[in-house]
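Record format v2
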Amino acid sequence: MQQEDLTQIILVSFMMPVLLSALLIWFFISFQRRKYRYESEKKDAMLREQALVIQRQEAVQAERNRIAGEMHDELGSGLTLIKYLSDSIGARVTDSALQEDVGKIAGYSSGLVRNMSEIIWAMNSRFDNLEGLISYVRRFVSEYLDDRGIEHRFVCPEVPKDVTLTVEKRRNVFLVIKETIHNAVKYSGAEAFRVKVSFGDSLDFLIEELGGRGFDPADFKDKGNGLYNMQKRMELVGGSIRYERRPEAMCTHISLPLEKQPTGTLKTP
Amino acid sequence: MEPQKIKLAVIEDLRDVALSLQTIINSQPDMECKHIYYNAEDAILFLPCHDADIVIVDIGLPRASGIEAIRTISDKCPNTQFCMFTVYEDDDKIYSSLEAGAKGYILKGASRDKILISVRELYEGGSPMSPTIARRIIDQLGDRPHAQVKKPLPVTERELELLTLLAQGLMYKEIADHMGITTGTVKQHIHKIYDKLQVSNRTEAINKFNGN
Amino acid sequence: MANYLKWIEIYHLIMISAWVVTLINRKKGDGIIRYFLVFLSVSLVFEMFVSYYFARVYKDNRLVLVFYATMCAAYYLYVLNEHFRTKPWATYFHVISGIWLILATFFLVGDIAKNTFDPLWYNLGMGLASILILKYFYDVVYVDEYRNVFREPKMYFFLGILIFFTSSFPLLIKIKFLSTYSQQIGSTFFGLMRAFGNIFLALGYLGAAICNRKI
């Protein structure tokens, strides 16, 4: 009788831990599974949210592009029409003063179209990089100076790839360079230009005007706020512009700090 | 017998612009422009009957765009070359029209002389290319990490060099010096690249259609 | 003194550590287990002094132990009541726990008067607690919002209780029988089971004490 009881007790003593172990194993496995499910759900939710944010940004960008595109198309064709109409008027009238005025209309509308094509370039995210800016500047310098029959050289080492530049930076730097060359041609009668580009921690343009009186910022003070605007533009994008008079040339230094950025795009955890 | 004239046609919805263009063309002894179409539908219908060497096409037309017009007409008229008439050189639509089969573009703001030079160049098998287009083509070649994976263009090494220089913003003259060829040859190379662009685009479209 | 040192077991040391950790963390703790420090202090006094004193002086500390065990069960039920207080069936659970407490106290007083020992009421209380602990684990896996339960003091606390009760359950059912039957078996196999259960219980306390701080 007592012997049986003892066996029972020992059996129960073994049974209980076995049952408990089974229970604990069940608990740990189920909990781990739950944890895994929870974490993957969390990751999914995060990815979904990221995708949503990107989608929203893209939608905004697309809408902006659409509005800009339509505006440009509309204005562009309108201005073209003005140009062609004034050309045909110019061909018909004999009064030379009138001809000149009509020619001005055509010139202004062409200028506006050119400005707008610069805006299109700035807005296009395809050119949000250093290569885009350099090639655009180079192209502008060549065309602008060729049209006016001024000698020029553009010296540029290999352009680093995949350096992103925002719309503001590209646009402001381009406009400052354009303005600098425009001023030099208009006011100082430069005979030749040398544009040197270098890359390091910053993007540096050195614009040298050879011959001519040389552009003097001092006597430019009272000629409107063009200089001030250029200074302002460079400050806006964290860059700088300064002038240096050398014996052989008047130099303008335009500098824009470059951020070193990882080449990868969006990182998902 | 007088020498063969370059036969042109214009597709442009703005009447005054189209007429000015016709006047400019007809003022030249070696060119003639008999037909103006004010929309893409008319051009698609009638152009194949009026044999033209070069068609100047405005991109933004009412209803069907100039690009669609090119796509449709170029099948029926293999000997006709299409030249886009555009306000902006960096317009994304120019690239699409080149893929559709256009071989050049003329800026609307260009002077009378430049327009005529462009037309003659195109007739002689030369095409212009802006740095933007050059960059897009290089992007498509797939040597960049963010390039869209498309069927790569079968460009030669020489053509690639040319594209690279163009993308850097060099002028045709500078490129010609750099590569030891004439400006005319540069433009002929570009013309060939456009051919490849169109062929590759068409192959891709057919592949897509066949579910390949 | 040597006698007393022999009295000290490993689980006592673990409990002391748990008490020390709880004492250090008492200000930082976000109070997940209420009155845990008080409970540990009382437990230590009983385990290390009162029951030793009774064993030495009266040669029998069973009554002290059963009183202490009942008190523990009552505290466990209190913690569980706290934990499940938002459940719809919380009221029933309160009432059942209350009835249990009254009856357990009543019979305990009776036992003391008769100088006998019946672990029935203790087992009933612990059984109730065990069922609720199983419910706790079930909730963690299937019902509650996901949380990292391995940082929760209650998890260790409940786990310790569960292991302790499981290993001491047979011992408690047959404790009368054991004390009369074989001193040998009582000191080897069941002694081992008891030590095992106690160590896990103390480890549970320690785990709860370590986790009972702001993360």
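The beta strands of chain B are 6-11, 31-37, 54-58, 81-86, 102-107.
Residues 132-209 of chain B form a domain with the Arc Repressor Mutant, subunit A fold (CATH 1.10.10.10).
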